Amino acid sequence: MIVTARHLEGSRFEVSSGRHSLITDQLPEYGGTDQGPMASEIFLFAVASCFGQSVLHVAKKMRKAATRLAVEVTATKNSSKFCFSEMVITVKADCDADTLEKMAALARKYCFVTNSLSGSVNIAHRVCVSGL
Q1: pTM over the 0.70 mark
Q2: Architecture of the structural domain at 39-116
């Protein structure tokens, strides 16, 4: 999987996976013009949507309905370390509490994003000087 971010102007980037793209930006207090979500927001979008898709996967396997499913991610920033220090994932749906608890617990196994966060992901940094 490859995602590319191409600088547009100011703090704005067009981020593309080849099939889809979106514009990212920063808030004005960080030098941006707020013309798109910040990368940290997109990161949380990924957590919420991946976990929601995982809950739906589990619901289908359990042959249970998870109607009006919503996943809320609340994150606390550690500004001095430029990272999130805590995330709380809240799953809401119209079904009984025991079933929803089971689905959310099993969904942890299938969420690629949260599994990547809780495991150790090796990150390498490279540079390539070229005319884009």
Answers
A1: yes
A2: 2-Layer Sandwich (3.30)
